[in-house]
Amino acid sequence: MNSPDDGKGRPSPARPSLFLERQGYRRRRLADAARLLPFLGAALLALPLLWPDESESESAEALSLSSAMFYIFACWGILILISVVFGIAARRMAARENAEPGAESWRR
Amino acid sequence: MSRKVLLIEDEPNITEAIRFLLTREGWQVETHAEGTDAVQVILSAQPDLVILDVMLPGKSGMDVLRDLREHEEMKALPVLMLTARGQSRDREMAEQAGVSRFMTKPFSNAEVLTAVRDLHAQASQS
Amino acid sequence: MATLNVLILVCLGYVVLLFGVAFAADRVAARGGGKWLRSPLIYTLSLSIYCTAWTFYGAVGNAARSGLEFVTIYLGPTLVMISWWWGLRKLVRIGRSQRVTSIADLISSRYGKSNTLAVCVTILAVLGGTPYIALQLQSITLSFSIFAEADPTGLYREGSSVFWVAAGLAVFAILFGTRNLDANERHHGVVTAIALESVVKLFALLAVGIFVVWGVAGGLGPMMDQIDASEIGQWHVDAGRWTTFIFLSAAAFVCLPRMFQVMVVENDDEGHLRTAAWAFPLYLLLMSLFVVPIAVVGLDLMPEGSNPDLFVLTVPLSLGNDWLAMLSFIGGFSSATSMVIVTAMALSTMVSNHLVMPIWLNTQEGTASVSGDVRTIVLMARRVSIAVIMALGYFYYSLSGGGAALASIGLVAFAGISQILPALVGGLFWRGATRTGALVGLSVGFFLWIYTLLLPGMEGGIIPASVIENGPFGWGWLRPQALFGIEGIDPMVHTVMWSLSLNTIAFCVASMLSFPSPLERLQGAQFVNVFDHSVSARGWTGSVAQSEDLMIMTQRILGTIPAQEFFQAEAERQNGRPGRLPEPTPQFLERLERELSGSVGAATAHAMIGQIVGGASVSVEDLLAVADESAQMLEYSSQLEAKSAELSRTARQLREANAKLTQVSKQKDAFLSQVSHELRTPMTSIRAFSEILRDAEGLSAEEQTRYAAIIHDESLRLTRLLDDLLDLSVLESGQVSLNMDDATLNEVLDRAVSSALAGSDRKIGVRRVRANERIPLYTDLDRLGQVFINLISNAQKYCDADEPVLTISAHDVGGQMVIDFIDNGSGIPTEAQSLVFEKFARVGSDKAGGAGLGLAICREIMQRLGGEVAYLPGHAGAAFRVSLPLAYRQAAQ
């Protein structure tokens, strides 16, 4: 007659599950952000296509190459920085996951 | 010299008719109405002749005859078989079982008497 | 001025250093040490083989020609890296869990281990890779020649130097790339060496850049001014090329065999991707940071017509900075060598696994599976492949003469290898992708790439100029560089657009139209749902683990007891140890597979055993997925089966009808025989006694009376029999007409009891509860009464009790009127109960009754009246139950 113990007798299962739920929620949002990052990058890198081109009109002020370089490298840097932040967050998540081996199971 | 006939027939009226006929001819008539123990009855009664109905309660006359012929001393016993079904297949089966004479109901009294006389005469000669 | 000799010495020294590093790293790894060898840093640096000599030298050349366009080649990989979470992570996870050895292996594995696909990918990779290797050789030669021009001693001979470079690289790749076979034991030596080379090339380029900006231009501000003032100083980028190249470089970054090698095959830890996701873009950013300044300064300093591809080298050289030039040379050398080594390794794996080994195994006709030297054969095949690939590169270089601009060959190779992309991405994310789809898509893309880019681009014209201008056979819409009449697009953009879009469309359509094999579907599920079951890749450490897993799987499929018996028998057969698990020998596996295929089919059994023995685990979900899809197939074939079942059902019905007819005919015979018997018996008595009365003399008066009475009785019996037969025949034929009338049950019973008992000398006692019998009836009262009379007179005839009593009780049971007739006799024996309603059935030897048709007639009557009569078992005496639906009663109300 130990079946009732299996379900209810465990010490306070409610609180860790809440904790896991929140952690899982955070992790999902983090994954969402990670999925969006390449789209942000693509958008930023497609922006130069809208710039005035020297060949299109001689009179219009074509963008100088130094400014263009500045823009592109700045975008690049921003993407790298976001990626760093995400990498650190993901590492923390992974560390926590390893500490609690059961955490993987509820995800599915 | 008393001649004994054993009549195995389940229809009481027919039994009565045959008994009447054969008694008048000087036969000692014993009757039996069951198929199941018919062979034992024949063995113990030691009749000179047996009249056997086919449709008997418990055991068919065919089986009774077949079992009877298993016994060595009964191989030559004259058996007159009576049947009410009258199909040719029955006649064949009866002949295979070792019948001496086969008659289909209804029969005339003269036929029965002739058959009994013939069978008895044959048995006495041999 | 550095002499060529010094340069060669430095080169040799550098190569020796690389050998040393690779050797040391291999030894450290073999001893199980060297945690840093498996660090994310090394992983990131090894990824930088993406930056070949083409990028090292060519990026500056490209910038000098087209401004910022060169940066697209770096932006594509950057986008891929920052989307690692849903892209590379999956690729790496699959690569590890499936023990993939190359991109060709991955594609083939995904599509049901199809070797045809693997061969296609391999050919594509070799075709794209060979010019690329030639390009690296060319860059080394060109850089040599720069120094040779400056060296008055002039001992330099171009051809021989290329040969020795190629030979040296081949030796390096063979030594460190083919030491071991298992893809799990990674090439730490090579990876560490190329990581070192990455540092060297980055350092060299940064050094040149810093020298140019601060040493030549005089600081950041002046540099910017100089850039804006230069001939490339204004933003000018072709939109089509910009987006196409970003996309193309992203695709190539994933598909290039060498990138796949370092990114997936050599990956030690999936977590390294987290670091590489930002570190590798950073590396790329640093690599491209000074490209434009170097180009601008080069354009400014160098004489008109000098090769901008070599500015990295010639600018420091012209400014007299020999050591910087030397460093730059080493940087370029590093780029070239690391790329060549890894490419040769990756391609050789593909060639040996998918081209050489299948052919070799075929020629061996099965003996190979027995002999133990397959391992050495594979290694030998790889070594030879490396040599052949290097030789191909060398010949390509010698034949082409190295005229074309560096960047264009690189892009052509990119466009070629990117044709794998639809099959790869589709395979990772779409379970419906099939082998046929992958083959068709790949072929379409491959063909278009050759037709629109590779052939027209070849100097000397394999395609005649007329074809390029007017299309084949004068069909304008098939012009290689203006398909479907769309002109004016950059050839590169044109090729990428058409080949990849048609490739994708062909892939999708063919996938949807074709149907995958079970193995394909299993692999598809494993790939697409890789995160659902492989928490982390793990190898099967020992053979016992395999046996255990095989046991578990077998139990699931065969059931516990048969599986245990099978394994025990096997263990006994192996070495008489029935208590332990058997070793997974080939013979055992073969037997097991045969055993399993009896349950799940050959292909699935093969796949399942392969999965376990091959090292990856199959989750139950995957098997279920396959089972689901098999069920759909079954459904289709079950429709066919249903039709054939219908046919056999019809046949069976015919057989049954025939059997029934035969039975009916037999029954008819039996019936006639019975009727004959029942007629002949009374006739016999009648004839016999009438003859007696006629012939016999001296009969007493009693005898005469008695015999006449017998004749009379038997005549009555005959009449009754004929009546019954006629009655039954009318009832059975359904031609009976019912005289429906109103009455109550007790009236009918009263009449029946009195007529049944009339004229009988030994009356049976009848017990009734009249209060219950006030049930109104609307039925054929005479017929119902006939049934009652029959039952009562039967009881009267057959009840063998000393004081016979018949109890008649009527009640209402579940909407039916039920009348039970139970007597206190000994009843009917159980075995006879089922027979009493049959015609001529008589229980016991009592001849008192009629012909045995009474109950049969009762049954027929009750059927006509809508009710039934049945024997009621479980009572001491004979018990019959007559039931009639109440609906018949209600109809009267």
TrEMBL record, chain A:
The chain crosses the membrane at residues 33-51, 71-90. Keywords: Membrane, Transmembrane, Transmembrane helix. This is Uncharacterized protein.
From TrEMBL, chain B:
InterPro entries: Bact_response_regulator, CheY-like_superfamily, Sig_transdc_resp-reg_receiver. The keyword Phosphoprotein applies. The modification 4-aspartylphosphate is found at D53. Residues 4-120 form the Response regulatory domain. It comes from the Bacteria. GO terms for molecular function: DNA binding. PROSITE patterns: RESPONSE_REGULATORY. Transmembrane segments: none annotated. One of its GO terms (biological process) is phosphorelay signal transduction system. Pfam families: Response_reg. The keyword Cell membrane does not apply. Keywords: DNA-binding, Phosphoprotein, Transcription, Transcription regulation, Two-component regulatory system. This is Response regulator receiver domain-containing protein.
Automatic annotation (TrEMBL), chain C:
Keywords: Coiled coil, Kinase, Membrane, Phosphoprotein, Transferase, Transmembrane, Transmembrane helix, Two-component regulatory system. Pfam families: HATPase_c, HisKA. It is found in: Membrane. It is a multi-pass membrane protein. Residues 637-667 form a coiled coil. It comes from the Bacteria. Residues 674-888 form the Histidine kinase domain. Signal peptide: none annotated. One of its GO terms (cellular component) is membrane. It catalyses: ATP + protein L-histidine = ADP + protein N-phospho-L-histidine. Its EC number is 2.7.13.3. InterPro entries: HATPase_C_sf, HATPase_dom, His_kinase_dom, HisK_dim/P_dom, HisK_dim/P_sf, Na/Glc_symporter_sf, Na/solute_symporter, Sensor_HK_Regulatory. GO terms for molecular function: phosphorelay sensor kinase activity; transmembrane transporter activity. Its main location: membrane. The chain crosses the membrane at residues 6-29, 41-59, 71-88, 116-135, 161-178, 199-220, 240-260, 280-303, 323-347, 380-399, 405-430, 437-454. Belongs to the sodium:solute symporter (SSF) (TC 2.A.21) family. This is histidine kinase. It comes from Ruegeria conchae.
